[in-house]
Amino acid sequence: RALLARGTDLAGVRAVVTAGGTREPIDPVRYIGNRSSGRQGVAVALAAADRGAQVTLLAAHTDTEVLTKATAHPRVAVVRVNTASELSDAVAAHEADADVVVMAAAVADYRVANSSDHKLTKEETGDRITLDLVATEDILAGLVGRRRPDQTIVGFAAETETDPDLLLDRARRKRQRKGVDLLAVNEVGWHKGFESDDNTLAFIDRDDTMVGTVTGSKREAADALWDAVLTVRGRD
Ligand code: CTP
Ligand code: CA
Prior knowledge:
Bound molecules: cytidine-5'-triphosphate, calcium ion
Distance between the termini: 21 Å
Helix content: 25-40%
Structural class: alpha/beta
Order of helices and strands: HEEEHEHEHEEHEHEHEEEH
């Protein structure tokens, strides 16, 4: 649809959007992180707010300039988090008020079980150090498990698979495994997805049908995501 036709088609919708990458501490000054810039997730939050939605943006670590616009938007409330566990708590605190939850954050799959409460020194760690990594809670699985019938849960899948058919197969399996209403599939790689201004997304619904694709700015991708959300919500 044309940008102008979208108007305030999300007026009255309450959205929770997560964005950015979580960081899992190794010690007070070191962490395990990922390359998420938060740009796509913040664009999703801003697109919704511009179209009339009331948005809570749960922001993990993002590029520094990315959050400024969101913080300034009258219909976006920003909550900052650090770890996967903090993000999980923030989601739990805000999900009850949400009509739509979009999990665009890059959540760490593992946290460091043997993290140190003081800065590790080479004196104690020597030539080799073993980090004991344990799985984090799957926030999306929790959301889907507690979902109200009127709630729409959207997941993201960042995949490095370059073959389009294999990428779609993988995405459909992930959509089923996650049980989300909509999965936004994002091909990423060493030079794609993360820091770039452009993005390609495909949207897969509960019937594993591709209900849209978009290549464009992260804002255009965000608007296409909300179009797909309205499509799947309109069916119930
Ligand atoms: N996600 C989550 N909690 C986690 C890990 C991921 O809520 N602990 C969410 C992400 O925000 C995303 C979706 O689950 O919306 C898919 O994330 P992804 O990393 O693609 O899926 P995983 O199940 O972690 O599978 P894998 O990393 O092995 O591909
Ligand atoms: Ca993962």
